[in-house]
Every structure is written in C-alpha cells, then in structure tokens.
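User: Predict structure, ligand glyoxylic acid.
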Amino acid sequence: MAILCLSTVLPNFDQWIKNLHAIDPTFDLRTIDNPGDLADITTVLAWKPDDELFKKLPNLKFVQSTGMGIDHLVECPSIPKNALIARIIDHDMREQMAEYALYGALKAYRNIQYYNQYQTEAYWKMKRRLFKEDLTVGVLGLGELGAYVANALKDYGFNVIGWKNSASKPHSDISYYHGQDQLPEFLKQCDILVCLLPLTEDTRNILNKETLALLPEGAYLINPARGGHVNEQDLLNAIQSKHLSGALLDVFQTEPLPKEHPFWNEPTIEITPHVAAMTNPITASQQVAENFKLIRAGKLPNNLVDLNRGY
Ligand code: NAP
Ligand code: GLV
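Assistant: Predicted complex:
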C-alpha cells in the first residue's frame, strides 16, 4: 500500500509527512515530486488536490482529507466512484470554530460592525444597548461543528436556534428546524446567522437574495463554512442597502479572495483568510495514521463520508 501525500495549499505539509513517519516508519509515503510507480498508489492524503492527478492512479481505493470538509474531494470527478473518502473530526477544530462564532456574535451584539463603519467617517455616535438574551442566533447545520457552536453560544447567554436536514435530534438541546420547508420560519428569527452547513448540491448558494431578505432588518452574517454557500453579489447588495448590518466571512467563492473583490472595501464586512478552524497536524496525524492502518488491515476507516448524501 503506497500513500501519495498531496497538497496544493497547505503551508505545513512537510510536518504531516514527518509526523506520519514518526508514528509508523513502515508507511510508504510518497510526494508528488517523487511519486514512484503510480500504479502502487492505493491511498491519497489530500487537501484541494488537482483532479487531473486522479486519472493517473488506476488502483486508488481510499482518499483521506486533511480537513473536516470534503467538498474539495467530491468536486474531483476522477476519484473512482467506489473509492472511500474519510475526513478529520477533531475536537480542537470544534473549539476553534466556537471561538470564531462567539467572536462574530459578540461583535454584532456589541454593535462593533456599526462602530467600524463610523470610524471610517470619524463619526462619534452611540448605538442603543442590546441585550444578548434578546438576540436570536441561528445556526445553519447542526453537525460536528454546528452543534458544538450552538451549545457554546447558548452557554454564553444567547438565544440559539438551529436548522438541519433531517428531523433527528442533534448533539445539542437547542430548538431546531429542519428541511427546506422550515427554512423561512427559521431565518425570520435570526438576528445573527452562523452558517455551518457542508457544501453540497442542496446547500450551494443557499444564502441568496431571497433567503437573506427573510432575515430581520440589521441581521449579521457569520460564514466560516464554504464560500459556495453565499451568493456574494446578493450579500453585498443586502449589506449596502443596510438590510444586513455586516458580515464576518472566512470563506469565499474564490480563494484567495481576489485583490479587486468589493468585499475588501466594505467596512462592515470583516475578512479572515480561511482560518476559522485550522487542522492541527499533530493531533490529526494520529487519526490519519489510524485510518491508514485500518485500510492496510482491510478494515473500514473512521469518519467515512456518506457520498450518497454528499457529507
Ligand atoms: P457536518 O458534520 O457534515 O454537518 C452537517 C450538518 O448540516 C448536519 O446537521 C446536517 O443535517 C446539515 N445539513 C446538511 N445538508 C443540509 C441541507 N440540505 N439542509 C439542511 N441541513 C443540512 O459538517 P461539519 O463538519 O460540522 O462542517 C461544517 C462546515 O464547516 C463545512 O462546510 C466544512 O467544510 C466547514 N469547515 C470550515 C472550516 C474553516 O476553517 N473555515 C474548518 C472546518 C470545517 P443532519 O444532521 O440532519 O444530517
Ligand atoms: C477547513 O476548511 C476544513 O474543512 O477543515
């Protein structure tokens, strides 16, 4: 079993390889610079790989994402349909995401998005105080990250509601809505909206002119999920018309966000460069190594993705 380690954008990819070798020196780890015979490769470790490469791997059986998201793999049509795909599920990433969402929710609750705008105009104006228990924070997606984030926001004192796909109970005791039919009722209540959906055919562009219009006047958007969830022009219009009071965005349709993108010049939009929850290669290497061992033993890996539903 040879493992090809691929990454187009990870700054610390060498560290993954060192860690994996340290855990099990018998792993046959190869990199794109020195891949050997491509017919040996049965496993790929990847973040945002180039789809073309998969056409050259006739014996691929398993792809391990170095992140929690797998949309970058689902979007590779050349990965064989019968290959298994697994993702990272790491508590450290839940905590980072909760910190990110709390930061955004606190910003909106304390009216900082307005003060950021006023600062660009040297304008001294106090806003009316808000009370956090009167603010409803809605979390789209109550999966590994969304349920944890919802609990953290609730523990802080916000009124939290959620929206998910099926009626099954999430790992959170907040009240929740489910399915497309209940989306409008959910959105109408969200003073602050946190998107933590996976990017699938059903959720692409879910935040658009129609759905953003359902949010209460002055609502604030936090999107650390995927840029593909948001119609960026519709969001900009909603912010410039003051229907929304601003947004905290970590992910974009095109990354890196192009220099000429209008979001850079919008004072009530705060931008971070896809860092809301970063994989820790030290802890994540342990679970990746475990999956390589399971595959080597002919067993199913942990944290498999259900490719029929796309997440
Ligand atoms: P996950 O565990 O797969 O969670 C999926 C949740 O979304 C579930 O509650 C699911 O509902 C719900 N859902 C899926 N499709 C839906 C639909 N069509 N309608 C309504 N609800 C739907 O995802 P996760 O691991 O928490 O990740 C959340 C997002 O964060 C992903 O987009 C991921 O790529 C992103 N992420 C970003 C960063 C970053 O640094 N910015 C880091 C890690 C992850 P059910 O429970 O009913 O199935
Ligand atoms: C980051 O975006 C991840 O999916 O882990």
